UniProtKB/TrEMBL annotation:
Cellular location(s): Cell membrane
Organism: Micromonospora luteifusca
Transmembrane segments: 27-51, 57-80, 92-109, 115-138, 159-180, 186-209, 230-262, 268-287, 299-318, 324-350, 357-380, 386-407
UniProt main location, coarse: membrane
Residues annotated as domain Major facilitator superfamily (MFS) profile: 25-422
Keywords of the record: Cell membrane, Membrane, Transmembrane, Transmembrane helix, Transport
Annotated region (Disordered), positions in chain: 1-22
Bias-annotated ranges (Low complexity): 1-14
Protein name: MFS family permease
Membrane topology, as annotated: Multi-pass membrane protein
Length: 422
């Protein structure tokens, strides 16, 4: 089904004037709310060394805390990531942002390790509801505001809000922790205000899903490739897994490595480094907007295949430049792959199942975010972080080869009917 087709029973705006400026304004308000939520989810990244110093827990526990967030995301995606398709986008997004406020309150309570784990779990629960829902909401608003127009604006803004938000969180938190009093409280106080603004932004945005009088029987999210192009969906899911794996490893490992092995304890520097990786991904997504999806996939695979080994060289030689360049190049590759995956799934899914299809994609992606990071943490109990990263680099290169094969098969599957028809 066409990306610009709307089902009148599920995704048509209540206002029959589909090109209403309200949907244009709503598009940017939801993008702002999406970016704010994603930024909040990465606020603790440059602060982990401070928690470690205060409470005396290990690098392994940092990865456990990080994994708690990913577990929350996966649980939420399974239980609620697809529900907005029949209850409406706003009825999912506003409670999800309320969960982020609960998490902020937990962080502000001067948490011990168990409370820190709970705060990250609650953060993940909210983000799991937000990620697929906000992406689908942006698609709905773009289509309602510009019916028949190219989907490039949706693709650029949705991925920039997602990935850019992940970068802004550590940047803001790192500078506040470095230059403002109460480094473990001030960043969260700021985001309490920003999250409240985001809730207001969602409240004034027009709904794009008409709530069904007879709702389908509830069921948890199923991971299904049955969204118009099975081979394409599997390829997109594999790309999302590989992309999030790189983001997860860098986010969980980088601050501790910079503070420890490189003896650079600056929280601002840690925030800048993480921001550079996610910022590189967001910029690359914007600059390559007009490239065809297969070209984005090829560039993404190549950049990841070059970037992660370069990052590893930086770790082996304790060279900040190589570490940063490798991280940025790998981030660019991950961003391109993720954008291609989201665009592919949004295009193939029927409007009534778009939230479900995206929830499944992000579910697989967040498994990629958590499992490798947790694996590295477990491995560091027996071997060094650098040795664990060396093993991960080898596994990632194998994974990227598999993604390339899957996309090649997907392209061949789509071309076969065209040749037959010709």
């Amino acid at each position: 089904m066409s990306l610009t087709t709307l089902s009148p029973s599920t995704t048509a705006p209540a206002n029959p004037e589909r090109s209403s400026p309200r949907h244009g304004r709503g598009f940017w308000l939801i993008a702002l709310a999406f970016l704010t939520a994603m930024a909040f989810s990465t606020v603790p990244t440059p602060l982990y060394p401070l928690y470690m110093a205060r409470d005396g827990f290990s690098t392994f526990m940092v990865t456990v805390v990080f994994a708690a967030y990913s577990v929350g995301v996966v649980i939420s995606l399974v239980l609620a990531g697809h529900v907005s398709d029949w209850v409406g986008r706003k009825k999912i997004l506003i409670p999800a942002l309320a969960l982020e406020l609960v998490a902020a309150a937990l962080f502000l309570s001067d948490p011990s390790l168990p409370i820190l784990l709970l705060a990250r779990l609650v953060t993940g629960l909210g983000i799991g509801m937000i990620t697929a829902t906000a992406t689908a909401y942006l698609h709905d608003l773009h289509t309602a505001h510009r019916p028949g127009a190219s989907q490039q604006r949706f693709e650029v803004i949705s991925t920039a809000a997602n990935i850019g938000g992940l970068g802004f969180g550590p940047l803001i938190a790192g500078f506040l922790a470095q230059y403002v009093d109460a480094p473990l409280r001030t960043p969260y106080l700021l985001f309490v205000v920003l999250l409240l603004v985001a809730i207001v932004a969602i409240a004034v945005t027009p709904e794009t899903v008409e709530e069904r009088l007879v709702k389908p029987a509830y069921r948890p999210q199923r991971i299904s490739a049955d969204h118009g192009d099975r081979a394409g969906y599997v390829a997109a899911a594999a790309a999302a897994f590989a992309s999030f794996a790189v983001f997860g490893l860098f986010t969980s490992v980088a601050p501790g490595f910079v503070a420890g092995a490189l003896h650079l304890p600056s929280r601002a520097l840690a925030g800048v480094i993480v921001f550079a990786v996610f910022g590189g991904a967001a910029v690359a997504q914007t600059l390559t907007n007009r490239l065809a999806a297969p070209v984005k996939v090829r560039f993404g695979l190549l950049a990841q295949a070059l970037g992660v080994p370069t990052l590893l060289v930086g770790m082996h030689t304790a060279n900040l430049t190589a570490f940063l360049v490798g991280g940025v190049v790998a981030g660019i590759g991950a961003g391109l792959l993720l954008k291609a995956a989201i665009g592919t799934v949004a295009a193939m899914a029927a409007p009534a199942k778009r939230g479900e299809a995206l929830a499944g994609l992000f579910l697989i992606g967040y498994l990629g975010l958590s499992l490798p990071a947790l694996g590295i943490g477990i491995a560091t109990r027996a071997i060094s972080t650098i040795a664990a990263m060396t093993w991960f680099t080898g596994l990632l290169l194998v994974m990227l080869s598999g993604v390339a094969v899957l996309f090649r098969r997907s392209t061949a599957t789509r071309r076969a009917p065209a040749r037959h028809a010709g």
